[in-house]
Amino acid sequence: MAAIATTPWGKARVVEEIELVQRAPDREFASVVQLLETAGGELLVRFAYHTGGAARRGPVTLRSSDLEALRSQLRERRARARALGLHPRRGGGASEVG
What we know:
By secondary structure, the protein is an alpha+beta fold. The protein has one domain (4-97). The chain is 17% helix and 47% strand. The chain has two helices and six strands. It has helices at residues 64-74, 78-83; strands at residues 4-7, 10-24, 27-38, 43-50, 86-88, 94-97. The strands form two sheets. The protein has a four-stranded antiparallel beta sheet.
């Protein structure tokens, strides 16, 4: 069964999720980028974080190394890259927004 997320627009199915595990000196957590789909077929992109459990809203802070990990994972998840406005290049990579 696919995970269900609650959004301001109602329930949405989690289609894909990229998890970026992060560490600070005294804790471990993960930022996530989720591709969600509403019952009506609308695609949503949600940035969140979790500390082992439910996704939490709030500020999501990514370091440059986290952004590189995100870019790397987006190369394999073209639907999410398109939803973010990143168009796949020939050869499977993601290009700049535009």
